[in-house]
Specification:
Blueprint lengths: L36 H15 L7 E5 L3 H4 L9 E4 L5 H11 L4 E7 H5 L3 H10 L3 E7 L2 E2 L5 E2 L22 H7 L4 E6 L3 H13 L3 E7 L15 H7 E3 L2 E4 L14 E5 L5 E5 L10 H13 L3 E8 L6 H4 L12 H4 L3 H11 L1
Parallel strand pairs: 1-2, 1-3, 3-4, 4-8, 7-8, 9-13
Antiparallel strand pairs: 5-6, 7-13, 10-12, 11-12
Helix pairs in contact: 1-7, 3-5, 6-9
The structure holds thiamine diphosphate (TPP) and iron/sulfur cluster.
């Protein structure tokens, strides 16, 4: 029964503002291959939710199909969860978020799940600005079905069997920027110092927050010739470090002028961006697209918070959806009778 986690935890584990320890945010023991990047992302999500003191029962995890989409089993075992059909997580997330806008939604997907079968759904999730954090664990292959190239595999990348990929890879961060996503970031599963604050910032953002995470598949795409292996990714990372300061904490950190940009999120939390390039403005979509493209052209992987729209309006706001979750409304509110129906119909004539 190795898949059952031991219940014992050190009695002095630190607790968060709610009195929970990190163990309260654990899931089941992972059955993914040892060393898979996806497990590091699961740990980063767990730590981010613990540090941001989000009650586990106020979180809903949604996913599609793939090794990546299995990840929600391995974190937040006390949260709501829905493991959907391949590529169809966006419709489930959209419906859930409209029915209950009070939960924190975390979507986990793969590059196959998002960039091939789920592409049509993904693009509409961005267009509608659904209030959720959407993480793609990007390994450039279909891990669960034994390592075929995915649509994000880079041109010229060599598969484990020696075949050279003849197609241009889809850059999901560029696509999200182009389609108008209100929060776009990129990171690496092996960089928890960057990934955790990014996930915390994404959860504090009102609207669709996209994080493309390079997450090596140790079994099928970690050899020389692969552009998504641990060694290749580490060699080509171009990082924009950042800190996340939650709303209730005093901002103590100080950085030299010209090297830091502070961004305040909707919930009052602040992100400090330490910029290597002082021209980079995180709220300038065109600049973000140029920077990502320039890095791609030079074979670098630009990571960090690439773009954020501080005035983002999420789907619930655009549609003026009821502020209370539907399951909390009583019969009278759900069926207000023919007089109200008539007045609605009159208003539409
Ligand atoms: C409708 C449908 N088509 C195909 C499959 C087979 N399938 C399962 S997972 C998968 C791709 C997984 O790749 P990715 O989303 O990148 O996740 P990874 O396993 O690499 O984490 C495919 C094609 C399926 N389960 N359902
Ligand atoms: S096959 Fe690849 S993606 Fe799937 S669990 Fe193993 S290492 Fe991870």
């Amino acid at each position: 029964m190795s898949y059952i986690k031991p219940k014992f935890r050190h009695p002095k584990l630190p607790s968060n503002a709610l009195g929970y320890t990190v163990a309260d945010y654990d899931g089941a023991i992972s059955t993914l291959c040892a060393g898979c990047g996806h497990d590091s992302i699961s740990a980063a999500i767990r730590n981010a939710c613990f540090k941001s003191s989000i009650p586990p029962h106020r979180i809903a995890k949604v996913s599609g199909i793939g090794c990546s989409s299995k990840m929600p089993t391995y974190f937040l075992g006390k949260s709501h969860g829905f493991n959907s059909v391949h590529g169809r997580m966006p419709s489930v997330a959209t419906g859930a978020s409209l029915a209950n806008r009070e939960l924190t939604y975390i979507g986990v997907s793969g590059d196959g799940d998002t960039a091939s079968i789920g592409m049509g759904q993904f693009i509409h999730l961005i267009r509608r600005n659904v209030n959720m954090t959407y993480i793609v664990a990007n390994n450039g292959c279909y891990g669960l079905t034994k390592g075929q190239d995915s649509a994000t595999a880079d041109l010229g990348s060599v598969s484990k069997g020696g075949a050279v990929n003849p197609f241009e890879g889809i850059d999901l961060a560029s696509l999200a920027l182009l389609q108008g996503a209100s929060f776009v970031a990129r990171s690496f599963s092996g960089d928890k110092e960057q990934l955790e604050p990014l996930i915390r910032a994404a959860m504090g953002h009102k609207g669709f927050a996209f994080i493309d995470v390079v997450s090596p598949c140790v079994t099928f795409n970690n050899h020389s010739g692969s552009t998504k292996s641990y060694s290749e990714t580490r060699e080509h990372l171009d990082m924009m470090p950042l800190d996340f300061v939650p709303m209730r904490e005093e901002i103590r950190t100080q950085y030299k002028a010209g090297t830091t940009q502070n961004v305040t999120l909707h919930d009052g939390s602040v992100i400090h961006l330490h910029k290597a390039n002082t021209d980079y403005q995180v709220d300038d979509r065109n600049a973000a697209m140029r920077s990502v493209q320039a890095a791609n052209d030079e074979g670098r992987i630009l990571t960090g918070l690439l773009f954020l729209d501080p005035n983002s309006q999420d789907l619930n706001q655009s549609l003026n959806v009821a502020s209370r979750p539907l399951n909390e409304l009583g019969d009278e509110e759900l069926c207000p009778g023919s007089r109200v129906l008539n007045s609605v119909n009159e208003g539409l004539r």
